[in-house]
Each structure stands twice: as C-alpha cells, then as structure tokens.
Amino acid sequence: MGALTACGRQAPEPLSAFEGRVEDWTREALRDSPELATRAGVSVEQAGGAYASRLDDRSAIAVEARRSAALRRLAELRAFDVRSLDAEHALTYAVLSSRFEATAAAADMPYGDFATLGGIHPYVLNQLDSAFLTLPEFLDRSHGVANFADANAYLDRLSAVAVAIDAETERARADAQAGVAPPGFIIDATLRALDDISATPAASQPYVMSFRRKLDALVAAEADEATRARSETRAATLLGRAEEITRAAIIPAHQRAAAFLRSIRAGASEDAGVWRLPDGADYYRDALALETSTELTPDEIHNIGLARVRELTGQLDIALRRVGMTEGPVARAWRR
C-alpha cells in the first residue's frame, strides 16, 4: 500500500511567498480586464470570477484605480529581498521590476489612457485604439458562440459597448478641460472613423454581422431538423436584440463622441508632439521607458533619429547620382 502511494500522483509543491504574489498579480490583472481573460482563455478560477459577459471598465474611477494598483504592485515587489530568491525567481523578479517601475512612473501621469498591461496613450479618443475601434474586433475574434449561453453573454457585452464609448468620451472631455486635447489631424481622422460607423445601418454594423455569422454556425451545427428549427427561431430573436442595441445605444454613443470632438476642433493645435501637453517631456520619457524598456532620454532618441536620417539621406544621394539624378533635393526623390 505504501509502495503504491509512493508511485501515485504527488501532491503539488506549495507555492513560495514570491510565487504566490506573482499569482495574485496575475489574477488581479485578469479580474480587472475581462477582455484580457477572454483572449487568454483562462478559467473562471484563474480570472478571479466570471468574466464572459463583461467588458473592461473604462470609467475615470477604474483608470485611476489601475494607476493606484500599479504603484502598490511596485511597492509589494520591492518588499521581497531578491537575494533570497533562486536563479529562476530572481530572473522573474528582474523582469517584473523593470516593467513595474516603468508602469508606476507612467501611472503618475493623470491624463490619457492607462492600462495595466497595455501601456499609455495621451489621447483617450483617437483613430487607432479607442474602444469604438477595438471592441468590434474583440467581440468578433475573441468572443466565441458555442451555445446560446455564449450568445446571451455576447448580448450582455454588446449592451456594455455604449457605456464603454461614453466613458472614454467623458474622460477625453475632462482631459480637454485640463489642457490635453489631440492635435487637429488626429481629431479629423477620428471624426472620419466615427462618422463612417454612425452612417452604417445597424444590420450592417460589425457587431451585428459578426453575431449573425456566429449564430448561423450555431444553428447549422444542430443535429436534427426539429432542433435546428427551434434554434433558428431563438437565434432570430437574439439577432433582433443585437440590432436594436446597436441602433438605439451604440450608434448614438458614436455620435456623442463625434459631437464632443467637433466641439474642440476649432481650438485644436496642429503640433503633433506631446511636448505641448502638461508635463509633456516627462510623459514622453515615461512612454519610452514603458514601450521600449530603453533608458535613453527623449533627446538622445531624437538625436539617434536625426543621425539615422542624415546617414540614409547621404546613401540615397550617392545612389541617385549614380543613375544621373543630380538636380534637386534628395527629399524630392523620397516622395516619388
């Protein structure tokens, strides 16, 4: 009996204090971001609770909580004596220390977007990664519909889309009142995207089209004709709800975001750099550290770029002269 027990499954080794804290931080990040948990495909237990019917909270209160949590996590990490860790855990400590320090520094900036794992962005409403752009792709690619429970969870998330867009609009409004507004060209590009979406009928919106494809696949997978017929009826009802949510809530949220941007367009700067924003130089430095892990200063990065442009321009000048192009600036050739 003893021999059989010895050969059986061994009890898992207890987690060290450091391993336990890393698991806590991981669970905290997943609990804070249902979208991250969905993309990672983790269990409810790993995510610290149910998440399949929720979107990330984009409110000002939630973003401020993430900033505070970033500062707390760095303090918790520094409480560990790295000399007490083995080589593997010391490496983990070093990686986390670099990331946590950069994230905590970025958390001091009171404007723009801040995500635990996603970095910082100075403008909440923009043409690249605002909620009105990322959520259609998220729901299409990451939210599977393997059954009608998944379909209902999709509708729950769809009902939260307008809330997410409005939350970002309100944060952008607060930032603008504090002197942080996008330059004109970003406002114009964002307005074009918002207006294109607003002009699209609800039935043709990505949210609805994606849901229709998922429901069609769900119905097609039914084993018999009678069950398929019942599922078709049920799917039609759910699809109708999706269209109504999109028409009555999501499109108006896009229109509200566009109205806000139009209200600040006349006073927008045409300067692209964040240097013009409050503590702009510090913001740029923190973004560099967070996005690249470099310890170079913004001026050093800028000088590297200028030197590289001079080098490439010199090489191009030589190449152009070899083929008989000897008149006019090199910049003209770049534009061709």
Write the layout of secondary structure elements.
Layout: H1 2-7, H2 17-32, H3 34-40, H4 44-47, H5 60-78, H6 87-107, E1 113-115, E2 119-121, H7 131-141, H8 148-177, H9 184-198, H10 206-220, H11 225-265, H12 280-292, H13 298-322, H14 330-335
Antiparallel strand pairs: 1-2
Helix pairs in contact: 2-3, 5-6, 6-12, 7-8, 7-10, 8-10, 8-11, 9-11, 10-11
**Mean of all residue-level pLDDT scores:** 92
Poorly predicted runs:
1-6
Oligomer: single chain
State the helix count. 14
Order of helices and strands: HHHHHHEEHHHHHHHH
| Number of strand segments | 2
Please tell me what the overall shape is.
globular
Q: What is the helix content?
A: 55-70%
Percent in strands:
under 5%
Whole-angstrom Rg: 26 Å
User: Strand pairing plus helix content: what structural class?
Assistant: mainly alpha
Q: How is the main sheet built?
A: 2 strands, antiparallel
General description of the model:
- This protein is mainly α.
- The chain has helices spanning 2-7, 17-32, 34-40, 44-47, 60-78, 87-107, 131-141, 148-177, 184-198, 206-220, 225-265, 280-292, 298-322, 330-335; strands at 113-115, 119-121.
- A two-stranded antiparallel sheet has the order 1-2.
- Helix 2 (17-32) packs across helix 3 (34-40) and helix 7 (131-141) runs parallel beside helix 10.
